[in-house]
C-alpha cells in the first residue's frame, strides 16, 4: 500500500499488507490526538515494553507472555537484530530456535517421505488432536493455506478432532488409514480431558491395525514434555514451547507442526514474517500511527458508549474460520470481570465478537444490525487482489462490502422523517452504526500472519488500557472441575449428583434414554 496515494484527512493507516479505515467510527482523529498525549498512552507503551522485555504481564500466573518470541526468528531475519529473552534463568529465544530447527528438519523428513511408516512407506495422513488454542489456530491456518494454491502442494491429508463428541472423531477417522497416519497431540498442559481422552481412543485405533504403528505415529506439541513422554510419545518427536505462551496465542509454534507438515516450512515461515512485521510496527510506531492501538482505542470508546457487540465479516470465503479463531483470542483474553488490582469492572471489557463471511451474513443477521435497537460495531474485511480472474465477481463482492459500510453509517437519508411516521417507519434504517474497514492487499501466509498478529496486539492493548490481564482464563477452570466430578454421576456412573437441578436433569436423561 502506497501511503502517499491516500488522500490526507481520512482516519486511515497502513502497514505492510494491512490498511484500516476508521472514518465511520465514533472514535475520530481528535480522540487520536488527545490519546497521543494521555497517561493511558504512556501506560500502554509501558505494557508493550514489559511484554517485549519478558516482564511479568500475567500476574495471576506470575508469568511473562512470550508468544511473540515464537516469531522472533522471523524478526531477527528481517531486522538483523538478535536478542535474549531471559525467563526463569533460560533464554527463551534459544529454545525457540532449537525447537524451530528441530521441527523444520522433522517436517522435511515427513514431506520428503524419508520418515516412513513401520511398513517403509511415506505417511499420507495426519490427525491433529487438540482443543481451544491447540485447535483453532492450526485449523484456521490449514483452511486458509489449503485455499491459497501455495507453491508447495499439501503433502498429507489432514483431519482434526477437537471435541470429545465422538461424532467429530468418527468423521475424521473415516477419512484416515491407521497404517499411514501421523497423530499430532497438541496440548499446552498435556492434561486437557478431551484431548487425552481422544488420544487414548486413537491409541486403540492404531493398535488395532498392528502393535507396530503407534510408536512412530505419535508427535506432541506441549510445554510439558515429560508428560508427553510418560504418555508414550518418543522424546524425539516432542516439540516443546514455553509455559509463558498462552494457549490462544500459541499457533505460531509447535502447536502448528501439523500445518508445517501438510503445507511446508516455507509457507509457515512467511506467516511468521508477516506477524513479525506487526511486532516491529508495535515496537516502533507512535500511538497515533499504530494500527492495533488505534483499533483498541476505538473498541474502548465504543464500549464506553454502550456498544458491546462487534460483528466481524470478512468478504472472503477463505477466511470463514477467522471468527471462531478470534472469538477465543478476544473473549478468553478480555472476558474478565475484575482488573489487575481486583477492582470490579463497571462495564464489559470487550464487545462480544461474532460474525460470518460476507456477503452470506447480509442474508442472515445483517438485518438486526441495520434496524434493531442492539448497538453493534461492524468490521468488514476486504481482500484487494483475489486469487482468481473473475473480475466481475470481485466487483460485486467489493460493491457489497462498501455498500454495507455506507448503509450502516449513513442509513436511509430520510430515516428520521420515516421514524416519525408509523405508516412507513418499518422501512427506517437510522444508520450511525460504527463501522470500520480492513483491507488486505491479498490473502497470503504473510498477510494472514500480519492480520492475526494485529489482532493479538489489539487484544492486549484493549486489556492494557483497562488494566486487565489478557493472559489468564480462570473462568474456564470452573466448568472443567465440575465436569470432572460429574463423570461419576452421568450414566453409566452411579454416584448421585450433589446439585438438585443437575440430579433432576440426569434423572430426566435416564428417563428419556429409557433406562
Ligand atoms: O479452554 C480453556 C483452555 O485452557 C484454553 O485456554 C486452551 O487453549 C485449551 O483449554 C486447551 O488447553 P491445552 O492446550 O492445555 O490442552
UniProtKB/TrEMBL annotation:
What domain of life does the native source organism fall in? Bacteria
Catalytic positions are 332, 363, 480
User: Where is this protein found?
Assistant: Cytoplasm
Enzyme Commission identifier(s): 5.3.1.9
Q: Which GO terms describe its biological process?
A: gluconeogenesis; glucose 6-phosphate metabolic process; glycolytic process
Enumerate the UniProt keywords alphabetically: Cytoplasm, Gluconeogenesis, Glycolysis, Isomerase
Q: Which InterPro entries match?
A: G6P_Isomerase, G6P_Isomerase_C, Phosphoglucose_isomerase_CS, SIS_dom_sf, SIS_PGI_1, SIS_PGI_2
SUPFAM superfamilies noted in UniProt: SIS domain
Q: Does the keyword Isomerase apply?
A: yes
The molecule here is called Glucose-6-phosphate isomerase
Please state the gene responsible for encoding this protein: pgi
